[in-house]
Amino acid sequence: MKSIHVTDHAINQFRQRADRPYRYGEALDRIQELWCSTSPAELDPRYRLGQLLRHGADHEAEYRMGAGWVMVMVRGVIVTVHRNESGRWRRLQQRATA
After folding, report:
1. Does some domain include residue 95?
2. Which end of the chain is more exposed for a tag (fewer CB within 10 A), N or C?
3. Does the predicted TM-score (pTM) go above 0.85?
4. How far apart are the first and last CA of the chain?
């Protein structure tokens, strides 16, 4: 498995939100494992303005979801993880190819 870069913030958020205790290294391994099983997602349009106001428009975030988690990647680094309980994200629909 290719190593995915993950910030300390993302690891700590995962540890706080997980349903069981994880040591730091375990959390990093689990995030990288989960990343491989996620699929592309997008932020619900109702929440986009707030996101832009909080984080600015100078970077484009990639959202991926799976196994009850949403991971946010910016410039090739997972910067945070959320539990997918709020309904703020949705899977991107696969576009049909002709």
Report:
1. no
2. C
3. no
4. 32
pLDDT of residue 19: 94
For residue 47, what are the domain limits?
5-86
pLDDT digits (tens, 9 = 90+) for 52-97: 666 565 567 889 999 999 999 998 999 999 998 777 777 887 655 5
> Are 92 and 41 spatial neighbours (Cβ–Cβ below 8 Å)?
yes
CA–CA gap between residue 26 and residue 44 (Å, rounded): 31
Domain count, the chain: 1
